[in-house]
Fold:
Amino acid sequence: MPYAPTYESVHSHPVPDWYHNAKLGIFIHWGLYSVPGWAQVGTDLGEVLKNGGWKEWFKNNAYAEWYMNTYQIEGSTAQQHHHKTYGKDFDYKGFKPMFNEAVQKWNPDAWADLFKKVNARYVVLTTKHHDGFLLWNSRHKNPFVKDYYSERDLPGELSDAVRKRGMTMALYYSGGLDWTFNPKVIEDIADIPAGVPQMKEYVDYANSHWLELIERYQPAILWNDIAYPANTNLNELFTHYYNKLPEGLVNNRFAQKFEIKDGHQVSDNHFDFETPEYSSFSEIREKKWESCRGIGTSFGYNRAEGVESYLTVQELIHSFVDIVSKNGNLLLNIGPMADGTIPAMQLERLEALGKWLDTNGEAIFDTRPWRRAEGKTSDGLEVRFTRKNNATYATVLGQPNKAVRLEGLKATPSTTIHLLGHDAPLQWQQRDNGIEINLPANLPEAVAHSFRITPEPE
Structure:
């Protein structure tokens, strides 16, 4: 049945199975900010979300994609860096010819091959960030900055490469902030509502861009950011989108009243999934959600980041398994250089995640949460549970010894237990406090091990 432009109608839209099954997406922040590729290191958004301190965060913003805003804040380290590197009179828009020259070297097929190797199921590309620069040559031009777009059709080329490899393509668009329409410098969280352009000229501009992106690229997700102008009937946009792409989704950042509650952005409009940033949920959520974060502390490329800024492979995989066990997806970001080069430390983490999933992906992809997400082994290792068909998957976060006892589980006489990546079923014994599993003598060293238990234990 076609959708009607009412909240009740669009709110009846179900989250499609492809998104429930996908679990892992690749986020890409790429634009003019990739040229300077610089932000202060050492600040952590997760801590800010818990403890406040927003004014200090914006002055020392760890997000390199906010460079245009941060270097305008008096006394910021980004301002010092900008003046020293480019000069006090160098305007941010001067990065446009540098980006357009660098991007000629980019190979979309190489990216798509990598994402496939990592076992990602979908890709989300930033088509416009808060600086207003477009990654495609839109029919709807920026009225304030001439030719403010990429000379290559980056969304189109990447969409083709991604879809050829059987993955799903989605698009990000900054509907809430555009500093070419509203140049207000954001120095505190309270500045954001005043920073959202509300003039009719911008409303028409943003709406026209979303409609054009839908028509040209058929994105599987409309991934909006920050907020959206108040004088917009979003139900009309969502109706057009769902009627054209019924399996599409919209995120929770189309809020027309910007609000952060308990460390998470909340929405006053319809959405298909929530988007905690550099954070997670501690329990199984009935509503589908997606945690987004960089491999380091920035989304955009930050040349100042060292190994101490990056997730370890263990932290990345443990976090991912935890998110999936609680009905979430992980949208893991890469911040490429202007020419499309993915920094070596990001590449290393991606390839390690992909290699782990080659063995353990059965416990991740196409699963649903089990009746509880968390458990422990008798020797204190954390366990996360998922389920699929008649099987329960227990992923032990760490390296067990000769045996592992999954506390609180009760097997049946017909129970079969397999270690993923190991062909033969394992021997097990029911103990008073759980199922004890005998491990292979040649158990490989890994940051996590997944077990398939059939039928589901009690």
About this structure: The first strand starts at residue 24 and ends at 28. The CA atoms of residues 211 and 237 lie 8 Å apart.
